[in-house]
Amino acid sequence: MPKTAGAEPLPLILLPGLLCDHALWRHQTDHLSDVSEPWVADLSGAVSIADLAASVLAAAPPRFALAGLSMGGYVAFEIMRRAPERVVRLALLDTSARPDTPEQTRRRRGLMALARRGAFRGVTPQLLPILIHPDRQSDAALTGEIVTMAERVGRQAFLDQQTAILHRPDSRPGLGAIACPTLVLCGRQDALTPLAVMTEIADAIPGARLAVIEDCGHLSPLERPDAVTAQMRRWLTGL
To answer: Most C-beta atoms within 10 A of its C-beta, which of 67, 102, 103, 107?
Structure first.
């Protein structure tokens, strides 16, 4: 974690989703550096959400703003359970407080089996239809970036991350205890964590603000970077 001098700018920890890395947050790290000190955490090398949260907390400064997308949101919930006093602001993007449904578990285990059979490169193409807006499926630059990002993360990290996700706890009981300013953001056409799931989170967190990004799927920071960055700037500055 980079060191900051004094209270400004506010450290901002960004937690990526499954098969995502720093590229997911590139626009935000480039355009929010005047109001924060962004750092993208590496969510690999552990097979439980608890261990991932512990690794982030070990590298983090005493107090920070925290933003997580999808799997990153699961880790953010765990950080809030462990060290809520350290989180100054919280942003939850395209995530869920619920555990997997049986259907989601079956799909997740099927993709893990595909990767174990040596077909890891076939995983991301299967995920693309539920990761991005239908109108962006033919956007070669966007899909290429997602595939390249997944290849950087790699097969073993994918298997570890899926294992962690499969065994994550139900975070809904703790939502009412979240007391810091919270942004809940969702792509309007998110097929993986739909708006109803995100509205459930926003309704349960006292004072949370729900922001809906139009014409956008699950990977909102990549799909609609300007709109997401604008919402996060508002969240960080309190304006």
So the answer is: 67
Q: Which domain holds residue 175?
A: 1-239
Query: Tell me, what DSSP letter sits at residue 78?
Result: H
The count of C-alpha atoms lying within 13 angstroms of the C-alpha of 97, restricted to the half-sphere facing its C-beta, is: 23
Comparing C-alpha atoms, which of 11, 20, 60 is closest to residue 44?
20
Is residue 66 within 8 Å of residue 10, measured between CB atoms?
no
Which segments of 117-139 does DSSP mark as H helices, in order? 123-131
Q: What angle do CA 177, 179, 185 make, to 5 degrees?
A: 100
pLDDT means per 10 residues in the chain (239 residues)?
Answer: 57 97 98 97 95 98 98 98 98 97 93 88 86 94 94 94 96 98 98 97 98 98 98 94
DSSP for 4-48, please give it: -SSS-SEEEEEE--TT--GGGGHHHHHHSTTTEEEEE----S-SS
CB-count exposure of residue 187 (10 Å: 0-12, 13-18, 19+): buried
Token pair recorded at residue 76: 């953010």
